[in-house]
Design a protein that fits this description.
4-stranded antiparallel sheet; mainly beta; single chain; Immunoglobulin-like; 6-stranded antiparallel sheet
């Protein structure tokens, strides 16, 4: 199911032209979709810039990255089921992209079909994944942890959870991997 979904998603190829002291850095992505997010983060993962892509197709924009303080930064293209991470450094007003350190983080996918909750994730580098399933009645603020597990050394993670007939309300799936959290809320 996950592999099929990934094959159906159009992958955005990208390019960049590093800046010199007088020209901006041009960042381009092919086959982006409306709603994808382009983000620039610093080494502490603090968001410095965030933009929502406004139309499907090709995207290109110039950035004056030479004005950033010396350090390590990241462009991230946050797509439907993946995040493309493109690291770069700024040193003495020179921008250098680190092509060999580019990564793709695959997000978990969740689908509710009746009482069955289908969860999957691809991790080509077998990064650990912590999964928590919480429940909250519609009349309550507090949530209850129903299930927790940590997956290690698996490229493909797939689970089917059966939800209780008696517990109607909001189910919250919390995923933690690679220093990130992904949250999916579903009402049953």
């Amino acid at each position: 199911m996950l592999l099929l979904a990934i094959n159906m998603v159009s992958y955005a190829s990208h390019s960049y032209v590093p800046s010199t002291k007088k020209t901006p850095t041009i960042v381009s992505f092919n086959n982006v979709k409306k709603g994808h997010q382009l983000i620039i983060k610093d080494a502490n993962l603090l968001i410095l810039y965030k933009e929502s892509i406004q139309k499907n197709g090709d995207y290109s924009k110039g950035f004056d990255l030479t004005s950033l303080p010396d350090g390590t930064y990241y462009f991230e293209l946050d797509k439907d089921v993946e995040i493309c991470v493109i690291p770069f450094t700024v040193n003495a007003n020179q921008v250098t992209f680190e092509k060999e350190k580019e990564t793709i983080i695959y997000k978990p996918t969740v689908r509710l079909d009746g009482r069955y909750l289908y969860v999957s994730r691809l991790s080509l580098d077998t990064q650990p994944l912590k999964v928590e399933l919480h429940y909250r009645e519609s009349s309550q603020y507090e949530k209850t942890l129903l299930f927790s597990e940590e997956i290690k050394n698996k490229k493909i993670f797939e689970r089917i959870y059966e939800l209780s007939k008696e517990k109607k309300g909001e189910y919250i799936l919390l995923f933690k991997s690679q220093g990130r959290e992904f949250i999916n809320k579903l009402t049953y």
